[in-house]
Amino acid sequence: MGRLSHKKLLKAEKHLLELAEIPTETTRIYLDHQDNYSIFCLQCGDPGKPPMIMVHGYMGSSVMFYRILKGLCQEYRLYCLDLLGMGRSSRPCFMMENREECEDFFVYPIEVCRDRLGIEKFVLAGHSFGGYVSGCYAEKYPNRVEKLVLISPIGIPRHPIGWTFQGWMESQSWKDRFVMRLVCLFWGKKMSGATILRNAGPFSGKIIEMYLGGRISGISEKEMNSVYTYLEQVNLYPGSGEYSLDQILDQGLYALSPLCDRLINVPIVYLYGDRDWILPDGAEQNSKFNSCPIITEIISNSGHHMYLDNPHELVTKILRSVKELDNMHKLNQKQLENQANPMQ
């Protein structure tokens, strides 16, 4: 913990939010009356516009959305939340013993924040692990979510037929097999990526670079260094929510309880990078169970972190697709009305 510097963290955060080119406000939303635990909330945009709540990915933070804030604020008032036990939110001792408890650990604070912020219904957007949490929230509080925007979400699909972890391992390159063997070793010992980071000493920057998939074109060295510094510092805080992973996913990173047949009555936009390690299989599987419209978009020149790789296209396709969902819903309603009143 000796490398943790709140001063460095705040300096990097200030720089990244300045690059957002839009006024932002950071606040804390307390989850109980004793002010024991709080959620870090980044807000921006016109309060008169429809609300969108955004949830970051594993080992991430709401600040990492800085490159898409301005674009999304064209249409929405944004509330970007750091998950409990991650980012700059409180980090309680993680004592959850099963999947349901793990899901509630992340979902319940979002519901408290919604209530504290006075939001009735909203668009819920989540990236990667935050996409899984967003799906769990929509399942538990369906009357609060108008639409889901799932950006490269984990935990949607079921295993392919005949899939085995060993068979998948054998199909990978020797480098990937080596990495996965390390992952399995850490997994068995309940060690997280952040645990490794805390013990990596001078190599922590390389771990963050690997987490992001390498340096990102179009981003200056100064900006990239602020990204690295922020993610390093925010993950040097004591471990908490990160320890949930092995109770939610298996070693192949498939969900123990996939969302493909749990999200059955919510309109969804799925977005994936064209170089993403997460494939669109989950969106296709979900379309067989979900009674509401689904739109799938591919973001060009992007890996898993498309909000950094290609923010302009990501924003454009989010805004366009959400409007398209509205149009599809109106068309469906009209068709239902015509079926109910065939003589009109």
Describe the protein's architecture and organization.
Helix content is 41%, strand content 14%. The protein has 344 residues and is α/β, with parallel strands linked by helices. It has 13 helices and eight strands. Strands 1-2-4-3-5-6-7-8 form an eight-stranded mixed beta sheet, with helices on both faces. The longest helix has 30 residues, at 311-340. It has a single domain, classed as Alpha/Beta hydrolase fold, catalytic domain (Rossmann fold), CATH 3.40.50. Helix 3 (99-117) crosses helix 4 and helix 8 (204-211) crosses helix 9 (221-234). It has helices spanning 6-19, 69-72, 99-117, 129-140, 165-170, 174-188, 193-198, 204-211, 221-234, 245-248, 281-286, 306-309, 311-340, and strands spanning 24-30, 38-44, 51-55, 77-81, 122-127, 145-151, 268-273, 294-299. It is globular, with a radius of gyration of 20 Å. The model has no long low-confidence stretch (mean pLDDT 90). InterPro entries: AB_hydrolase_1 (IPR000073), AB_hydrolase_fold (IPR029058). Residues 50-311 form the AB hydrolase-1 domain. Belongs to the peptidase S33 family. ABHD4/ABHD5 subfamily.
Layout: helices, strands, pairs:
Blueprint: H1 6-19, E1 24-30, E2 38-44, E3 51-55, H2 69-72, E4 77-81, H3 99-117, E5 122-127, H4 129-140, E6 145-151, H5 165-170, H6 174-188, H7 193-198, H8 204-211, H9 221-234, H10 245-248, E7 268-273, H11 281-286, E8 294-299, H12 306-309, H13 311-340
Parallel strand pairs: 3-4, 3-5, 5-6, 6-7, 7-8
Antiparallel strand pairs: 1-2, 2-4
Helix pairs in contact: 1-9, 3-4, 8-9
